[in-house]
Structure formats: C-alpha cells, structure tokens
TrEMBL record:
SUPFAM superfamilies: YgfB-like. InterPro entries: YgfB-like, YgfB-like_sf. It comes from Candidatus Aphodousia faecigallinarum. This is YecA family protein. Pfam families: UPF0149.
Amino acid sequence: MTHTSSNPALKENEFVLLDELLSQIDEKSLAMDASQADGFLTALCLLPQEISPSEWMPLIFCAPGATSSSLEEQKQTLLEELLYRRYKEINYRLAHLQPIDPIVYDPEDDNGNPLHGEEELVALKPFASGFLTAAQTWPGLLDSEEPAVASSLIGIWRHLPDDEIGDFAPVRDELLSDSPLENLDDAIEDMALCIKQVAAVTRGFANKKTPSNPKKQTRRHR
C-alpha cells in the first residue's frame, strides 16, 4: 500500500534490507534490530508532540553510553531513508486507525526449533523494548495522566524482557494469570488494540468501528 509518492510503504524485500543494514552497524554501538526499531518508531508516533528525526534516529543506531558508529555513506543514507519511510507508514496507519503490522522474528528455542502457543510471545520482546526506550526518552506516554493511556500501555509492557520490566512485573504476572494470550497472532491483535486506544487519546485520532473480522496482520519475518 503506497501512502504518498514520496513516502511509499516498505516492501517485503525492504524489511529484510532494513534488518540487514542495522545488523551491519558495529556491535559496540548496541544498535537496535528491526523489531526494536519498529517498537521505537511506533511509540514515537504515539507521542503528543512530534520529535525531529535528527533527535530520534541516532538512538536507533547507538544506545546511550555506547560507542557511536555508522555505515559507509551510501548504506547509511539508505538505512535512514528506510527508517523514515517506516516511521511515516506507522504514523499513517495510526492516523487511519488501521491495525499495526509489527516486525517480529520467527520465535525459536536455543536449538533453532520453532516455538508454538504461549511460548511464541517472546517474539514481541524486542518490539516492547524499543517502545519503552522511546517512552522513557520523551514525555507524553509514561507520564500521561489519562487512565486510558496507562491501562492500554500495559498491553505493551506485558511483553517486556525480564531485565527491563522493572515495576511493571506485578502487572505482567497478573495479566499472565487473568488474561493469557494463546499465541503470537492473538498477542499482535491485542497489542494493536492497545496501541489504537493510546493513539485515540495522545494523538486525538477519533475512534472508528472495528471490522467484525479484521484481517490478520502479516508478520515481518527475519
């Protein structure tokens, strides 16, 4: 789906290229992978105030306190273009209250075997991690006084890695007990609804009637 002639949505091969380029950044920079970057960009699009790409893009390439590094000029320019187009695509989807289509990796165990059922949900940890990074960096989400925002964000925090979940752990454990998610598709739908509810408040996007049988979102595989 092309949004505008200047900012077309990424194609499948471009999602692969995005992940490949991010993985080529020097390890010492602790750059985000494509799934983390997707969560980061989604949170950016939910902020009440727009943040300049010159402020947010460096955080994708280099974690705070890490040694900054970048690709050779042509690759770096292409990477930045892909990220900005993805940012515009996510913003478009949120503005039109279309379900998000997060970049997720096929979940596997330590032996490379595919995971199934509830075990699949680990695939959303990078997305949630990147989302939290943006939420902690700029105001508008974590400090929101709107109950609807705080309650909806819990749908993101439940997927945070154990070393990042912090004070949200009790809420996560309660959700796991009272509102378990059966598989990754269910988790993505639940997350999409939570993000839609946040967007309705922080960005003022009006609620629209959700189709009774919404189309399943296509996973972006590694």
